[in-house]
Amino acid sequence: MPYGYIGSMRATPGHRTDIVVILLAGRDGLREAGCLSYIVGASTTDDDVIWVTEVWESAAHHAASLQLPETRAAIGRPMPMLTGEFTGQETDVLGGLGL
Q1: Please, what's the largest Cα pairwise distance for the chain?
Q2: pLDDT tens-digit readout, 38-80
Q3: What is the CATH number of domain 3-92?
């Protein structure tokens, strides 16, 4: 069964665009690692919040992707620009358009 993850993070004021650029640059290699969908979005009600929605072939594929150099860079580089406020939710993906 596909594995889903939806998370949010809060950027320090003025750094949301910088973080989005880093997150999108880190998508290289995700498809080969088992990623079916990787979407980065910006909140329409809060100028500092970023949402990331992912769908993976399995939870194991997601866990393995966290070891990829580009993924580790996409996680590590923006840390100084984040407040430390994160949310996350794992999901069982039941279906949808585009999968």
Answers
A1: 39
A2: 999 999 999 999 999 999 999 999 999 999 887 888 789 999 9
A3: 3.30.70.100
Q: Which is nearest to 61 in space by CA: 39, 88, 89, 33?
A: 33
Q: Residue ranges of the domains in the chain?
A: 3-92
Can you tell me the distance from the alpha carbon of 68 to that of 23, in angstroms, rounded to the nearest whole number? 14
> How far apart are the C-alpha atoms of 34 and 56, rounded to whole Å?
6
- Joined together, the tokens standing for residue 17 give 């665009």
What is the CA 65 to chain-centroid distance, rounded? Answer: 11
Nearest alpha-carbon partner for 30 in 21, 41, 38: 38
Q: What angle do CA 43, 9, 62 make, to 5 degrees?
A: 110
Are 68 and 76 within 8 A, CB to CB?
A: no
Please give the mean pLDDT across all residues of the chain.
94
Q: Considering the entire predicted model, what is its pTM?
A: 0.91
